[in-house]
Write the structure tokens for this entry.
Amino acid sequence: MTATTYRTGADARISVEQWIRMYRRMVSIRRFEEQVNELYTRALMPGLAHLYIGEEAVAVGICEALRSDDYITSTHRGHGHCLAKGASPDRMFAELLGKEAGYCRGKGGSMHIADPATGNLGANAIVAGSMGIATGAAFSAKRLRTNRVVVCFFGEGALGQGVLYEVMNLAQLWKLPVIYVCENNLYNEYTHYSETTAGDILARATAFGLSAESVDGQDVRLVHEAAARLVEASRQGKGPAFLMCKTYRYHGHHVGDINREYYRSKQEEQGWKTERDPIQRLRDWLIKENLTDAASLDRIDSEAKTEIEKAVEFALAAPYPKPGEVDQDVYA
Amino acid sequence: MTATTYRTGADARISVEQWIRMYRRMVSIRRFEEQVNELYTRALMPGLAHLYIGEEAVAVGICEALRSDDYITSTHRGHGHCLAKGASPDRMFAELLGKEAGYCRGKGGSMHIADPATGNLGANAIVAGSMGIATGAAFSAKRLRTNRVVVCFFGEGALGQGVLYEVMNLAQLWKLPVIYVCENNLYNEYTHYSETTAGDILARATAFGLSAESVDGQDVRLVHEAAARLVEASRQGKGPAFLMCKTYRYHGHHVGDINREYYRSKQEEQGWKTERDPIQRLRDWLIKENLTDAASLDRIDSEAKTEIEKAVEFALAAPYPKPGEVDQDVYA
Amino acid sequence: MPEAVRELTFAQAVREALAEEMRRDERVCILGEDVAEAGTPFKVLSGLVEEFGKERVLDTPISEAGFTGLAVGAAMTGIRPVVDIMFGDFITLTMDQMVNQAAKVHYMSGGKWKVPMVMRTTLGATRRSAAQHSQSLHAWFSHVPGLKVILPSTPYDAKGLLKTAIRDENPCVFFEDKMMYKLRGPVPEEEYTIPLGKADVKRAGRDITIVATSSMVQVALGAATLLEESGISAEVIDPRTTWPLDEKTLIESAKKTSRAIVVDEGYVRYGVTAEIAAVISAGAFYNLDAPVKRIGAMHVPIPFSPPLEDLTVPTENVVFEAARELCAHA
Amino acid sequence: MPEAVRELTFAQAVREALAEEMRRDERVCILGEDVAEAGTPFKVLSGLVEEFGKERVLDTPISEAGFTGLAVGAAMTGIRPVVDIMFGDFITLTMDQMVNQAAKVHYMSGGKWKVPMVMRTTLGATRRSAAQHSQSLHAWFSHVPGLKVILPSTPYDAKGLLKTAIRDENPCVFFEDKMMYKLRGPVPEEEYTIPLGKADVKRAGRDITIVATSSMVQVALGAATLLEESGISAEVIDPRTTWPLDEKTLIESAKKTSRAIVVDEGYVRYGVTAEIAAVISAGAFYNLDAPVKRIGAMHVPIPFSPPLEDLTVPTENVVFEAARELCAHA
Ligand SMILES: Cc1ncc(C[n+]2csc(CCOP(=O)(O)OP(=O)(O)O)c2C)c(N)n1
Ligand SMILES: Cc1ncc(C[n+]2csc(CCOP(=O)(O)OP(=O)(O)O)c2C)c(N)n1
Ligand SMILES: [Mg+2]
Ligand SMILES: [Mg+2]
């Protein structure tokens, strides 16, 4: 693909600042996730985490199309969504380490980060667990006439859960402003999606009357263009939509999934990393189009690195919640 | 529609005896259900029942395409399926009255009739409750190489339940011999299906890779033709299929649903009864084609009436299970 | 309660609670199957769609998981949904939404998101509806931190407790015994609510404590009348909510009477009677003169056949006999 | 058990039980997410697909309700499925299939159809997996007639009980504490099975009875060692199955020792400890010197933060202290 094919109508409406912001966010997410891996490897993080590395363009391209008071729901692989919606890395790391300064006071951990301030209804450790929630938030948006839109992120594994079809039906019947974003990274944990997914994915949404499309999830510009269009339509009252983003996770299913060759080859991984990296792609394009230069982007890279390092330090130094916290907030 | 349009290739392969058998079965089901209503009205039947009157062509046309060792699963509106698969009316009435001679020793009642001898895996009072079971029976058929086919009957209301999509996916992935038969009688209890069903019903099945089609469920010949074809294909290893039968229940959702005008008009009911009655239609065609005469069909009618009356008498006279039965068969 | 108050049926009391709360707070919505024009198969909601419109009384597809999940998200974002699950047996389909989502959202988010929703559903057998339409599964939700579980036993309680539940900031499950919908009882015209977690002494007594829930309160009261004729004074206590549970009232009563029976229509094993019996056995340990007796549904799927079904549920007589036997103990 | 037997981990014992039963009976199949090449995330099933092939070890989509329902139908028609639900928290999605279908099919059909299936799943916290991956929800299934519920506490029991469950004609749910997979213990090479419904005295004692389930048996045994040092002789009893429940063994032990503690990793409220405490309180009423003490998970969603999470589960020390206190009573 050449640069010119990217120069769609939508592209033209995006300011340089926006592209730069998307670049910065993608880099931040990547640095963030590298640190998560590092924390795990150095046995500084309790439990596990599911890295978003490789999929950054999806969260960033989509959240860039949202207002800050729009809602998202997220998954077990949720750090990228949280950051893209505006969460700050320090409190996220604090959450991952179970510290009181974390977004959930350490009670949620990696798979449950939630933040009303950025419209994040929460990550969810149940595959498809947030679909009802997202659809319900869209119900509120419509009934309360807030003009908000909701994005429901989920992996292609969630296509196996019946509740998706139940809520797509509801959303379409009631014309709710929710976009179901399927992050198809080819694997349900350790099983290729072709072994678990019959028929045609987009048809599963159009059958319920949703408009559905598929996009190269490694290209933030295509993702953003599609998202902006669908979000806008939904905001105008056109009802729900379905967007499949074709993407890839570079790392294991979780940080402990090191030996992966029984389910996918190193070559396959290498191909995605070297040929379709979303950060590299945007970088190349920005430079090629003279929208910025390498030095500026390098500066962003190193700023991001510093920011993330500081955030980790903050979290490592932060205190655990006091024992008395344990039975607080069971009931509101 | 004229008679000639019915003379499809499939029709030609059906013997007169088969048509007569289908006629007899439809009449039996109708007489059976009329008696159920009568028993309810006379306060002789405990609880409620959901009458199949008006939908007879679906169960009969489909079960006629099955071997006796093929399996079916059924619903809360299940009497027609049971009878069409070969159950005898006396033990069914006994079940409806909670008598020991019933198919389930009185423990199941109207909504739970099951009978291994006729391949009936059971009616089910959970909407969509039998979909997993039907798919599992198809799994057994495939693994045990019995060459059996399974028919899963359900109302269009069950399209709302996610488990349908879960099992269609599984059935298609594993090429299981199961036919999902959607009896679309327009209503989920008291709500028109258009208020609960977005998009396109057949597309919900084709999206998962199933072949899907729709048929006039008031015409036993069309139903049977489609069923025979789909069952045969499934038996040959072609995997699952979906068949929607457009039909109508003449009576209320259950025997106690008398005042229905707030959800459907008397006119609508009258239209279906007078213009599309499945028994009348087959009768007219059989006579018109000279396959039999009115007198012979009248004889069948009165035989059916007598059979059903006797069956009711049997059931009314039959004893209840002994109290000691109550905690038997909780565990095998 | 003032004297000479109006009488309502249990169903009317539920409906009135909903109507009043919907008038008071326009964020309150009802979601469920056949809840609008049909007003549910039990006609509990008749008339509400006429007053509040289809935007607030919504017929759903037959998607218990889907619309319960939708209610969770709606509750988090400003709506106060009341979800109708037609039969308590169908909560099986909502367990993930209620237990993994609704019950945990507040805690997992460190107290940031709230889920002010109510699930209304049924319990109770003897309607000749067989095993999939007769269960009393409230013990499951009672086991789960984050949920509140409410079991009204009278029209008065139904109205007052439901209003409180709708105003509560937490997910509440409200179980109505479907055989009680026609039960009549006094319900004052004036506004009132009833706090969650406060047991109610439905009848005071000296010799034995009968703790009963939902329609079993009526059974217990009937037994208490029979016992009175035998010279035994029974105290009938209705916990009203299984969570929060008003342990103190139960224990104090048992300490006073020194004997206790627990009656609940769910299964005895690992059910509500187990918890309450364990609480009383431990709390009134030094005062009990006899083991706490548990009475509940027979441990079988509910059979259809009427003579069998009737054997599976507690009756006045069973409670009466059990109480007499207990009182025969030193 | 013979002496000098081979040691296996808990995971190996489970795997061996499956392999043996799959060799013995080719109708036995395994269904679940990532069960084939991946051998589950816990690697419990490693190697089985290699031996038995993809026809008998089937990777499913992420459709817990769908494949559990499929297993019910397969079990009715000649297959003996073993369903793998990766985390016990996900049984929420299978409740309709297990409770409204599997548990009731035999009874509702008047004894005609049978559902010989096994669901294997996990329980247990402290893996830093937070509220949706740490629950111990076995009380729910224990409450439901028609199901059998198995909680192995050692590799030996895991193997013997799982083999029995696979041969059982009823739906059985088999809960494995995920934190025990690496626990080693003796497992003889020779074929053996263990009956369901028979409690096992894991340690004999005189002064106090500790009834414990699953990994809490290990906790109880640890506490018993500490108690011994304090001069208290504790009897540790493992019911092994919560249904059927071997009441007799529990009651006899409590009668003998006159004191009892029940330890289970589920929530205390309306949970397994409630039933067992109620059974012992009533059954050993005239012999108990102190109230039965219940110990279980704190009544909160399981928090992620390690110092908090550790507060929510019973430890040796908590059991030890509780026992000491009970023994201080007359
Ligand atoms: C209901 C449920 N079933 C199973 C799991 C275990 N699990 C966690 S992630 C995962 C795979 C999810 O795959 P996908 O949706 O494609 O997301 P990805 O990990 O690829 O981002 C599974 C099976 C779960 N968390 N919830
Ligand atoms: C899970 C579940 N939800 C709700 C019900 C209550 N219910 C019984 S029949 C029915 C409508 C079913 O409609 P449909 O599937 O079209 O079948 P029909 O009655 O028209 O034959 C409903 C909602 C139920 N039995 N199970
Ligand atoms: Mg994936
Ligand atoms: Mg219908």
